[in-house]
């Protein structure tokens, strides 16, 4: 099958499904791919007809393949539906793909207008009025995520601190290049392992600037639930605060938008639970190590020839930057 014929079949199948979902719809328009992943595709399109246009997003894995550690797309859709029903700002899932749809694995959701590019949110005049309140908002929304009744969720993996650390150590030791700072971080974390969780809660897992849709009034939706799991709620607060997600605003640790205290105040106001600052610090170091190991694995991919793209190389070079972040975090200077 040629590429053109495959694209035509894809468009026809998507249009047939969209027309079945939206009463009075006549056609799809403005179809464009938003992501370029090898296994996961994200498409934006409009469903037009009867004087109304509905914006939609398709997330799909055409061959059913996903990266290791990510949820099946049907499970991700279940998570999104559960959190939205619990009051967390999230897109509306309109349909989970079935084999008869001819589109692979995935789901359709309503497109939410707004901005996801972090540098624009941090700098553009459009967000100047709301920017001082965003760290507090993100804290409150994290609290809402962690308050979701886990009995209403699909089966999710437990990834507490010991399991996460064990997995990162295994990946680090499997790499060809020694990284003494990673060894130091592993030892630092082992020596400060927090007490076991009493009650694992829903964790987004990638809660950060870049996975949130913002409007001039604030947060509109939290996106990308593909590594959601059960674990320690301090993980989400910590991950938002590691340096890569500050996008140059290094003195504003809460995603480059505000202080840790603003983030924690939002969380505490929404949950009534006091944030454990030391536990957050532990998770900041662990999250920074997680990012570093991920960057270092990109080095292995690039050198092996599995992926020689410029994007892969740019991520790979950040492993050294991450070592500085780890040293600052462990020394208490961040």
TrEMBL record:
Residues 31-268 form the Aminoglycoside phosphotransferase domain. It holds the Pfam family APH. Keywords: Kinase, Transferase. Gene3D superfamilies: 3.90.1200.10, Phosphorylase Kinase, domain 1 (3.30.200.20). One of its GO terms (molecular function) is kinase activity. The keyword Kinase applies. It comes from the Bacteria. This is Aminoglycoside phosphotransferase (APT) family kinase protein. The lineage of its organism: Bacteria, Pseudomonadati, Pseudomonadota, Betaproteobacteria, Burkholderiales.
């Amino acid at each position: 099958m040629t590429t053109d014929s495959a694209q035509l079949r894809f468009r026809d199948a998507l249009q047939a499904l969209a027309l079945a979902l939206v009463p009075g719809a006549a056609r799809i328009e403005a179809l464009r791919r938003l992501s370029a992943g090898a296994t996961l595709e994200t498409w934006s399109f409009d469903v037009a007809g009867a004087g109304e246009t509905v914006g939609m997003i398709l997330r799909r894995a055409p061959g059913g393949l996903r990266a290791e550690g990510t949820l099946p797309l049907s499970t991700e859709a279940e998570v999104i539906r559960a959190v939205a029903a619990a009051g967390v700002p999230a897109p509306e899932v309109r349909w989970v793909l079935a084999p008869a749809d001819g589109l692979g694995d995935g789901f359709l959701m309503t497109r939410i207008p707004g901005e996801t590019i972090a540098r624009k949110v941090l700098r553009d005049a459009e967000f100047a009025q709301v920017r001082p309140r965003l760290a507090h908002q993100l804290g409150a929304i994290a609290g809402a995520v962690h308050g979701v009744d886990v009995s209403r969720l699909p089966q999710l993996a437990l990834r507490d601190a010991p399991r996460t650390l064990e997995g990162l150590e295994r990946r680090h030791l499997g790499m060809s290049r020694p990284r003494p700072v990673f060894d130091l971080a592993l030892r630092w974390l082992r020596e400060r392992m927090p007490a076991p969780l009493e009650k694992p809660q829903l964790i987004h897992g990638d809660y950060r600037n870049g996975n949130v849709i913002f409007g001039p009034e604030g947060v509109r939706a939290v996106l990308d639930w593909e590594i959601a799991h059960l674990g320690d709620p301090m993980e989400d607060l910590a991950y938002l605060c590691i340096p890569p997600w500050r996008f140059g605003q290094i003195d504003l640790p809460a995603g480059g938008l505000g202080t840790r205290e603003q983030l924690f105040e939002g969380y505490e106001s929404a949950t009534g639970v006091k944030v454990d600052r030391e536990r957050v610090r532990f998770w900041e170091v662990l999250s920074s190590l997680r990012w570093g190991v991920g960057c270092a694995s990109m080095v292995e991919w690039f050198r092996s020839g599995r992926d020689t793209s410029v994007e892969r190389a740019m991520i790979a070079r950040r492993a050294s930057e991450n070592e500085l972040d780890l040293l600052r975090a462990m020394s208490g200077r961040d």
